[in-house]
Design brief:
Radius of gyration of chain A: 19 Å
Order of helices and strands of chain A: HHHHEEHHHHHHH
Strand content of chain A: under 5%
Strand order of the largest sheet of chain B: 1-4
Helix content of chain A: over 70%
Oligomer: heterodimer
Largest sheet of chain A: 2 strands, antiparallel
Strand order of the largest sheet of chain A: 1-2
Helix content of chain B: over 70%
Largest interface: A-B, 52 and 51 residues
Structural class of chain A: mainly alpha
Chain lengths: 291, 383
């Protein structure tokens, strides 16, 4: 029982990270129908920025965190402007390829700049553990869970209570209608990219103590975040987080209770099963085609 | 330029549009046949890889280019073909038999993947094929009694009629070339048959195809099966060329490379698959060139333009340092993909068509001929 709870908590913590990356996918997909295969690499880059600010320049953890988030938000805008905007509205295949190319580029270039070693950020939570009875919970895992909760609340407030958030929901609902209503859709889209890059950075920095930062971490985790996003229904923000948590829990349970090797494939098997039974995901909308 | 007057349906579905094609393709084939006696062994080896990649490219074109079903799982099909060959060879099965068996098995698995894929579209299909590829990769690594796990499997040279054909010999190259040519001719034939026309109809509009009486489900599964089977054949050759296979060779990276092949070549024509394969295989020799010769050349140019010896040597060392950076290949891949998607969506073959048209129509060529239409953001979500 104790093992079970222990596994559950670390699964949830890992799942929250997947959820955060998936959140980035979903934000961008909702607003622009673009599936950003480079999301994991944005996360990796955010981690490297944070490492540069905190580990190399010796800034305070929180200052460095904020700096990395701000820098990555700008970078997200830049990536949208250069790579995505010219091909918005073209077939999905082109856009997927463009973002795969972007991911390739980011991975290799960050490997060139920072090298291929593993890096580590010292966080205020790295050492501490919380003991409840004989249950031992590491602070860094709890911090991931808490931060995901906070970020979700912030995003919910942003989307539902601010004008900008309403504009974003409008342009994701129907871009052409949003144009007609005078919403500056292009600007909205670049802000969406900024937000998704910022969310990815948060994931990257929070993850740094658990799995170290290296140039391939984005690919690995990004590909785990896909099942999360699909599981929750690709267009649903709460779905992304729930899907992420589910994937994390499945993974850590499979790693603990099943034979070696299941850990890595279990999320994909679950994903295939969900796609077969309910292709629109757990929280997705089923839209009928009208001819 | 030659004007083609198509007066009946037979003209429209000919294998090659006009007789000139027989001459040019014949010449190309002749050049390819004497190539092993002219080129260096390294280039020959690259040419074999071009044949294998082009075969996979054609297979992927059938699925992605002509049926409109994106797949990022073709490395898995390649792996299934390669492992079937390695496994059967261990038990003394002759080459022609395991070659066909590998293709059949891969085609069967392709059809099995095709069934679940019927309900999926666009991004969901991409993710499902990625998942399939991961699962296959993991099975290859874990099913040790058959695949030897992570230690990989050795595969002996092809034996044709009792004679061992080494992987570097011209005969092996001819074998790969024959497979490629047969694949291409077969695909051309397929595309002019009712099946191929149904594929294209599904790509252009599933709804329209269905209302014309095309059995969409059946043809999608067929497309998956054919594409997988061809990839399986290529997998056998791939295994023989490498003579050693292990699960970490068939990763997502390889699937992406195959997609790059058809993306860079052009997703609407079989020429594209070959051009893309040449491109992707030649990146490695190009990088070697960049590393070895390029710095000297640039330093020479700098010296000619009046830079001192010291400055020229400086430039040389800087260029050399840049060219030997670790992730350069990945970065070049990334930039090339993005640039092609942004500026040349029709790929290399599209560029060739434009050049040809320019000379045919000179001085009346209009850039707008190939201009992409402005599309308003169409939602694939509501399809």
């Amino acid at each position: 029982m104790l093992d079970f709870v222990q596994q559950l908590v670390s699964g949830v913590a890992l799942g929250c990270v997947y959820g955060l990356i998936a959140l980035g996918f979903v934000l961008v997909y909702k607003a622009t129908e673009v599936v950003n295969f480079a999301q994991g690499d944005l996360m990796m880059l955010g981690g490297f920025f944070a490492f540069t600010f905190i580990g190399m320049m010796g800034l305070n953890y929180w200052v460095g965190f904020a700096g990395a988030v701000a820098a990555m938000a700008l970078f997200g805008m830049l990536a949208e402007r250069v790579v995505v905007r010219p091909i918005l509205g073209y077939p999905q295949f082109s856009i997927i390829m463009a973002t795969i190319g972007l991911g390739y580029f980011l991975r290799s270039v960050s490997g060139m700049i920072w090298g291929t070693d593993d890096f580590k950020i010292d966080t205020p939570f790295s050492q501490g553990v919380l003991r409840i009875g004989s249950l031992v919970l590491a602070h860094d895992k709890l911090s991931v869970i808490a931060a995901t909760g906070i970020l979700c609340a912030l995003l919910w407030l942003f989307f539902n209570k601010t004008t900008l958030g309403t504009a974003m929901r409008a342009s994701s609902e129907n871009m052409l209608a949003a144009y007609y209503m005078g919403i500056p859709v292009k600007r909205v889209v670049s802000i969406v990219w900024a937000i998704s890059a910022a969310v990815a950075t948060c994931a990257g920095v929070l993850l740094a103590p658990i799995t170290f930062i290296h140039s391939n971490v984005g690919l690995v985790l990004g590909l785990k975040a896909f099942p999360a996003a699909v599981l929750g229904g690709f267009g649903s923000i709460p779905g992304a987080v729930v899907g992420g948590v589910l994937i994390g829990v499945i993974e850590s349970m499979a790693g603990f209770y099943l034979a070696e090797g299941w850990k890595d494939v279990a999320p994909y098997i679950v994903l295939l099963a969900v796609l077969l039974l309910k292709p629109e995901g757990l929280f997705g909308l089923h839209v009928r085609k009208k001819v | 330029m030659r004007f083609l007057f198509k007066t009946d349906y037979e003209d429209d579905i000919r294998l090659f549009p006009h007789s000139g094609y027989y001459v040019s393709y014949g010449l190309l084939l002749a050049v390819l046949l004497i190539a092993p006696y002219v080129l260096s062994s390294y280039l020959m080896s690259q040419l074999v890889f071009v044949c294998i990649y082009a075969t996979v490219g054609v297979a992927l074109l059938i699925l992605t280019g002509f049926t409109g079903q994106a797949s990022l799982g073709h490395a898995a099909f390649l792996a299934i073909g390669a492992y079937t060959a390695a496994y059967l060879q261990k038990y003394g099965v002759p080459f022609p038999v395991y070659f066909l068996a590998a293709g059949l098995l891969t085609g069967l698995i392709g059809a099995l993947v095709g069934f679940p894929a019927l309900r999926l579209q666009g991004i969901y299909l991409v993710i499902a094929t990625i998942s399939f590829a991961f699962i296959v990769e993991e099975i290859l690594a874990r099913w040790e009694s058959v695949t030897n796990g992570n230690e990989g499997m050795r595969i002996k040279a092809v034996s044709l009629f009792g004679v061992a054909v080494s992987r570097d010999s011209p005969t092996f190259y001819f074998l790969c070339l024959a497979v490629l040519v047969l694949t291409i001719v077969g695909t051309l034939n397929l595309l002019r048959s009712p099946t191929g026309r149904a594929f294209v109809a599904i790509r252009d509009s599933e709804t329209a195809a269905r209302s014309m009486g095309v059995n969409v489900a059946l043809y999608k599964v067929k497309s998956f099966a054919i594409s997988a089977a061809i990839t399986g054949f290529a997998g056998v050759l791939f295994a023989h060329k490498l003579s050693f296979i292990s699960p970490e060779m068939f990763t997502l990276q390889l699937s992406i490379e195959f997609i790059i092949v058809i993306l860079i070549g052009g997703t609407f024509s079989l020429h594209g698959a070959v051009l893309g394969a040449i491109f992707i295989v030649m990146i490695d020799p190009f990088l070697t060139y960049l590393k070895d010769d390029m710095p000297g050349i640039i330093a020479g140019i700098a010296a000619t333009f009046g830079a001192g010896t010291q400055a020229a040597a400086n430039v040389q060392s800087k260029v050399a340092a840049f060219a030997s950076l670790n992730g350069l290949k990945g970065a070049i891949y990334g930039i090339i993909i993005v640039l092609f998607v942004l500026f040349e969506p029709l790929g290399l073959y599209g560029r060739w068509l434009k050049i040809k048209l320019f000379f045919q129509l000179f001085p009346l060529y209009k850039r707008a001929t190939f201009k992409r239409q402005k599309i308003y953001v169409k939602s694939e979500r509501n399809r």
